[in-house]
TrEMBL record:
This is Isocitrate dehydrogenase [NADP]. NADP(+) binds at residues 83-88, 136, 585-586, 590, 601-603, 650. It comes from the Bacteria. Binds 1 Mg(2+) or Mn(2+) ion per subunit. Mg(2+) binds at residues 351, 549, 553.
């Protein structure tokens, strides 16, 4: 049960987890004065794995299954959760976490790559609970409202971030399949009466295999079935490799293997084996023996061949080099370390990778460490057009101008595992040729798809209640802002055509008088929004779950430099609030910098914004006036952090994450001391503000002097809490003030 005065602050991974060690003690010291209890729940990758194996662990190693608990909590009206970004783990990340925990004395099993026994299958099933995007779909019991707050936008206009210039002769382009993809094969139905469905594969000989057992469907639910053809996909990759070479552009792949944790790793595996065809064919037997799985990338191959006799290993390495010599250059994730776009699937996450390239003149890093035009491979056509259109727009009109451009906010259909991002348990790689059938209780065929061996079949669902809630939220945002709201829906796509009918059915039930509400295909909507953005005008994008994800990185990165500065609210369908921090991820590169030189460039602005709305939600829900004042003053403090340039710098020996937290605390205390609505808060925070101001230089100095050398926090996925806290709270003077509040 969620308590009325409790806010849950999630403990996650990497940079946001480091930042939490510094920020949370400050926040707790402030909010307790409004009777708010701030508790943490561990949903980090390490925490999620540990929670799966209690029977193997000592009592002091066990942790409870916080994700399941929060998954229940979000259905209660009292829920108030601040959700920081967490790792959506690829298999290489899971293996690294297990190795780290084992070395720390946790008796965890190895990740079974190729489970054969029942025991191994059950172990793998447990790891799969923690794999990929395992957290967000569980917590997102509501649709999404993401936007750049006014203060953030104003700041960006006055202090525009760098933007790479665009040339009209840029060779950068997006390449997608022309047939055989999910887009081309999608079939969609709306369920009339509640029933159950099951998914069955019928082979050519008429033998049936049950792929998914009976699961419920509600009236009004939309379900889709689509297929990615293995043959068409591989032929497409082969063509594009040739074409990239001919055009002399970098070959790059952009997928979402974390959220699309079944389909996209398979697609990634195909591009790896087509690109390195000679290596995988010539050494097939050895690589099979070693258990190399192309779905995990070239990195997996490199690490597994280390156990081969030197001669054999060198032969394979030479064959890889021979492929490089013959092939187009690969886009690099880290050119210094030789890590390519095909090394690890979790390194090429499309929502962040495409906007980053568009911001850098449409270029990515090549093997020589220099920026170069690229071919962006996005195999499926469902959403790739938005990037092609944006690229085309920049080529035609030049880079966008952050000092003058408008804004595109988003209302995203996300609740109850909507659409593709809820499809993992309904996605299958086909074992043979035949037909996939989705059948209802009366054995009626809901969807039928012909398939061939190796094809990927995917079924998605979206329930009617979330769709209605989404339409309402769109109208609400249009009303609140006066901006046009555009539904990004493509009538030529089976699923979208059904959603359009729902929009047409439910919109008349809303008060839309005087509002501009449009429906456009994603490509048209991109053009419409970009035309407006160039005129300094704001537009609301109303999208499905995938475009929600893509657009809330794309536009923020272009508009304000990073999606970390987004306000990201999930009004839960049962009345509670889930407040996400920013729209980006856990920034692994920031941890690397912190470990090397003691500087954490993570910007906690997303946390500041989420905290303010969370505290405000609590204040409004329970008539807690002190909470309302804390929220209001926090927003003031956040604006001052921006205005006074107290955000983290990217460079060592300048203000970092910890310094920005100090200034937030100082400005927050000052705002509380200055207000006259609540005498208690004023009395408590006057001396705090005075002392912080008096000791500003000492504190700033203590924080800066902690930088400039390597930091050891006793681990990566499961760092030592004490070491982490020590590293993240290096100012004794500040700690004393905070701890005395
Ligand atoms: N909501 C969630 O839980 C999400 C989780 N993820 C997970 O995060 C991990 C990394 O994903 P990735 O695609 O690399 O995307 P990230 O958003 O983590 O990182 C991309 C880049 O964005 C910039 N950035 C992001 N957040 C901040 C911040 N708060 N302050 C300053 N800069 C920031 C950094 O740029 P620079 O390096 O230039 O400083 C960073 O390298 C993956 O495990 C992924 O699954 C991803 C998205 C959302
Ligand atoms: O859950 C994830 O893996 C990433 C989520 C994400 O990128 C987003 O919601 O913007
Ligand atoms: Mg995203």
């Amino acid at each position: 049960m969620a308590q009325k005065s409790t806010i849950i602050y999630t403990k996650t991974d990497e940079a946001p987890a480091l930042a939490t060690s510094s920020l949370l003690p400050i926040v707790q010291a402030f909010v307790k004065n409004a009777g708010i209890n701030m508790e943490t729940r561990d949903i980090s990758l390490a925490g999620r794995i540990i929670a799966q194996f209690p029977e193997r662990l000592k009592d002091d190693q066990k942790i409870s299954d916080a994700l399941t608990e929060l998954g229940e909590m979000v259905k209660e009206p009292d829920a108030n959760i601040i959700k920081l970004p967490n790792i959506s783990a690829s298999v290489p990340q899971i293996k690294a976490t297990v190795a780290e925990l084992q070395a720390k004395g946790y008796d965890l099993p190895d990740y079974p790559e190729d489970p054969k026994t029942e025991e191994e299958k059950s172990v793998k099933a447990k790891f799969d609970v923690a794999k990929g995007s395992a957290v967000n779909p569980v917590l997102r019991e509501g649709n999404s409202d993401r936007r750049a707050p006014k203060a953030v936008k104003n700041y960006a206009r006055k202090n525009p971030h760098s933007m790479g210039e665009w040339k009209s002769d840029s060779k950068t382009h997006v390449a997608s399949m022309s047939s055989g993809d999910f887009y081309g094969s999608e079939k969609s139905v709306e369920i009339e009466e509640a029933t159950n469905y099951r998914i069955v594969f019928k082979d050519k000989a008429g033998n049936s295999t049950l792929l998914k057992n009976k699961a419920p469907l509600l009236a009004g639910e939309i379900i889709d079935g689509a297929v990615m053809s293995r043959k068409a996909l591989r032929a497409f990759f082969a063509e594009q490799i040739e074409d990239a070479k001919k055009k002399d552009v970098l070959f790059s792949v952009h997928l979402k293997a974390t959220m699309m944790k079944v389909s996209d790793p398979i697609i990634f595996g195909h591009v790896v084996t087509v690109f390195f065809k000679e290596v995988f064919e010539k050494h097939a037997a050895d690589l099979k023996e070693l258990g190399v799985d192309p779905k995990h990338g070239l990195g997996d191959l490199y690490s597994k061949i280390q156990s081969l006799p030197e001669e054999k290993r060198k032969e394979i390495e030479a064959d890889i080099q021979a492929v490089y010599a013959e092939s187009p250059e690969l886009a690099m994730v880290n050119s210094d370390k030789g890590i390519t776009n095909l090394h690890v699937p979790s390194d090429i996450i499309i929502d962040a990778s495409m906007p980053a390239a568009i911001r850098s003149s449409g270029m990515m890093w090549g093997p020589d460490g220099k920026l170069k035009d690229m071919k962006a491979i996005i195999p499926d056509r469902c959403y790739s057009g938005i990037y092609e259109e944006t690229i085309e727009n920049c080529r035609k009109y030049g880079a966008l101008d952050p000092s003058a451009m408008g804004s595109v906010s988003n209302v995203g259909l996300m609740a109850q595992k909507a659409e593709e991002y809820g499809s993992h348990d309904k996605t299958f790689e086909m074992a043979g040729d035949g037909t996939v059938l989705v059948l209802d209780d009366s054995d009626k065929v809901l969807i039928e798809q012909p398939v061939e061996e190796g094809d990927i079949f995917r079924m998605c669902q979206v329930k009617d209640a979330p769709v209605q809630d989404w339409i309402k939220l769109a109208v609400k945002r249009a009303r609140e802002t006066g901006n046009p709201a555009v539904f990004w829906l493509d009538k030529n796509r089976a699923h979208d055509a059904r959603l359009i009918s729902k929009v047409e059915k439910y919109l008349p039930g809303q008060d839309t008088k005087g509002l501009e509400i449009l429906i456009k295909t994603p490509v048209e909507a991109t053009r419409f929004s970009l035309d407006r953005i160039r005129e300094g005008k704001d537009t609301i994008s109303v999208t499905g779950n995938v475009l929600r994800d893509y657009l809330t990185d794309l536009f923020p990165i272009l508009e304000v430099g990073t999606s970390a500065k987004m306000l990201s609210i999930v009004p839960l369908m049962n009345g509670g609030g889930l407040f996400e921090t920013g729209a980006g991820g856990s920034a692994p590169k920031h941890v690397q910098q912190f470990q090397e030189e003691g500087h954490l460039r993570w910007d906690s602005l997303g946390e500041f914004l989420a905290l303010a709305v969370s505290i405000e939600h609590l204040g409004k829900s329970y008539g807690n006036d002190k909470a309302l004042i804390l929220a209001e003053t926090l927003d003031k403090a956040t604006e001052l952090v921006l205005e006074n340039g107290k955000s983290p710098s990217r460079k060592v020996n300048e203000i970092d994450n910890r310094g920005s937290h100090f200034y937030l605390a100082l400005y927050w205390a000052q705002a509380l001391a200055e207000q006259d609505k609540d005498a208690d808060l004023k009395r408590i925070f006057q001396p705090v503000a005075a002392e912080m101001a008096a000791k500003e230089n000492v504190i700033a100095e203590e924080l800066l002097s902690a930088q400039g050398r390597p930091v050891d926090i006793g681990g990566y996925y499961a760092p030592d809490e004490d070491l982490k806290s020590l590293a993240m709270r290096p100012s004794a003077t500040l700690n004393a003030i905070i701890d005395a509040i």
